[in-house]
Amino acid sequence: MVRMADVARAAGVSAMTVSNVLNERLPVGEPTRARVMAAVEALGYEVNLTARHLRAGRTDTVAFIVPSFHDYFGEVADKIAPLIEAEGRHLVLERTSGSPEHEMAALSVARLQLYDGVLLSVAGLDRDQLDRVRSSKPIVLLGERDVPDRFNHVRLANEEGARLATAHMIEHGSRRILALGCTFDTAHMMTSDRRIGWERALLDAGLDVDPRYVVPIATYTPAAARDALLDVIASGLPFDGVFAVTDVIALGAVAALAESGLRVPVDVQLAGFDNLDMASFLPPGLTSVDANHEGVAETAVGLLHRQMAGWTGPAEHVVAPVRLVVRGSTRGGA
Amino acid sequence: MVRMADVARAAGVSAMTVSNVLNERLPVGEPTRARVMAAVEALGYEVNLTARHLRAGRTDTVAFIVPSFHDYFGEVADKIAPLIEAEGRHLVLERTSGSPEHEMAALSVARLQLYDGVLLSVAGLDRDQLDRVRSSKPIVLLGERDVPDRFNHVRLANEEGARLATAHMIEHGSRRILALGCTFDTAHMMTSDRRIGWERALLDAGLDVDPRYVVPIATYTPAAARDALLDVIASGLPFDGVFAVTDVIALGAVAALAESGLRVPVDVQLAGFDNLDMASFLPPGLTSVDANHEGVAETAVGLLHRQMAGWTGPAEHVVAPVRLVVRGSTRGGA
DNA sequence: CGCCGTCATATTATCGATAAAATGTTTCCT
DNA sequence: AGGAAACATTTTATCGATAATATGACGGCG
């Protein structure tokens, strides 16, 4: 391991001069700078980032902590990365499996030290647990859970999105719409907020809210969604529309409907949420609620940058607006 | 920031004793241990991982460096994470955009220092560039590029997989099969290795290899794939099968075929590569070459663990076997 | 000619933890 | 009782860089 001191010796200067050359902190005379650079090249020296971090208290790295790496979070992460890199920092992803324990561990003093700032997609933690986090590290929370006021937070207009999607299917003739993957949780969660939007659309249209039409799912995978929907079909419960709580769930629904010979959108209309890349390619095109990933990424990163730059004003709680992207899976589409 | 020295003072012992209690390195008397633990609790002390890293030379962290976070790599990363965590380490993901410069930077001395080991999915680097990497850090390379012998490397049986998929479509009646997303590169690349498999299947069946049937794609997105295939359709080139170089490309093909009123598998058979989760849900089910992500993950992590444990034997070059998963998008499927 | 300011570079102290060696204390055995 | 072994804890040095401060050389000016 080549150290700064080795470079210093080779160039006949002190370590501090090497540091000044490399970091352009204090001015260094041209001949000296040249000698130092030559020594750096000759020895192949590179700074020890750990030592720099310990001494300078800065890592130039931001973490985005997500429940899982694939699908939705992978897409959002790819939007976030360039924004972080534009400010000369690195982005790394960590995974929590959505468990509260892992999420708390990611917010522990020890782990937060490793980054200049952290974006956390909250899946498992509730407000009380988040309140126990004591740290002045810049943090921005993403996701649909309730969070303490002191945290910057970006969430989606879940209820409105679900309402839009459901109302759109009602408008085009659906009367019995499943809320696939929704729940009756009382705490704010993605699955319950979206259920409320679904309910609202039904009530606005003067339709009944039948709890049998809320179909919870064991795990948020297309496989579980397909199985759940196949069960519904087997049970004989009549339906002519499906609001899937996410596009990933909608993917499972597409498979179940196709397997059962139900045509989309003729027999059953289908709408999802998230507008993943996939949505526009899945024939006949998946109608989906779009929350503008890119805008969400910009907002969240903006809040984080502001904190990292030293801003100490009150935290912001942003609700990202949504719009419905209509495609062939509903009768308003092509 | 609470330091170990603060805990030591509170417990009336030396910092070293605190360290010994927390790390269970040297034995500590029970009453002392209790006092130390009480002080740790009272002050809410947590170790400074950066200082530990600097002194102890270990981060307990492994990086998986990928071209992009979504789709294929997100799925593989979710398989790798539990394997790393099972050994008590953390996994972080970094992104290179597939550019050689970013990949080299990720392999720089400075960045490698941050991890106990690195898994790198090579997209842009060639053998010569990789040869310039000088580091004894445990590294395992993934991906289809050629790599120097001294690196552990896991790649897929690309040629065989493409051959299987193509042969399967020939067997079920296709005679003019597009190689969508393939290329004529001479270096080993995913897109050229798979083209060779496609060629082989054609030749084995006594069919012509017509270069017009190799359709390169600007960017590896479903949108670009759809556009490329729509262009082919518009050109009037007749075809009755599509081998898509990846499932992501196949997704674009599905959209293009649906838009053009071509029925899968009746008019055109379609097969992909990677067997992403999506493949089994995309109606009528996407026939795809499965490379057993989980097995690849286990192999790669196994090689990395071996290196991190101090193994210094020769590097291994593993070619992960593939099999064809037949679904409804080809006529052998349901 | 001598004093002061400016610029370039060097010295010192420190970030927080831990490996290795040193010190002190108790126990045990003959 | 004497001495060694066993055990518990502390001391010292170090990982590699950098912020803050100090030193030295030179030029300008009265």
Furnish the topology, listing elements before pairings:
The structure is a homodimer of 334-residue chains.
Chain A: H1 4-11, H2 15-23, H3 30-43, H4 49-56, E1 61-66, H5 71-85, E2 90-95, H6 100-106, H7 109-112, E3 117-121, H8 127-131, E4 139-142, E5 152-156, H9 158-171, E6 177-180, H10 190-204, E7 214-215, H11 222-235, E8 241-244, H12 247-259, E9 269-273, E10 287-290, H13 293-308, E11 317-320, E12 323-325
Parallel strand pairs in A: 1-2, 1-3, 3-4, 4-5, 5-11, 6-7, 6-8, 8-9, 9-10
Antiparallel strand pairs in A: 10-12
Helix pairs in contact in A: 1-2, 1-3, 5-13, 9-10, 11-12
Chain A binds a DNA duplex (30 and 30 nucleotides) through residues 1, 3-5, 13-17, 19-20, 23, 25-29, 32, 47-48, 50-57.
Summarize the structure in words:
2 copies of one chain form a homodimer. In chain A, 43% of the residues lie in helices and 16% in strands. Chain A is built from 13 helices and 12 strands. Chain A has helices at residues 4-11, 15-23, 30-43, 49-56, 71-85, 100-106, 109-112, 127-131, 158-171, 190-204, 222-235, 247-259, 293-308, and strands spanning 61-66, 90-95, 117-121, 139-142, 152-156, 177-180, 214-215, 241-244, 269-273, 287-290, 317-320, 323-325. The first copy, chain A, is elongated and about 85 Å long. The N and C termini of chain A lie far apart (63 Å). The model of chain A has no long low-confidence stretch (mean pLDDT 96). At the A-B interface, α4, α5, β2, α7 and α11 of A face α4, α5, β2, α7 and α11 of B. Chain A binds a DNA duplex (30 and 30 nucleotides) through α2 and α4.
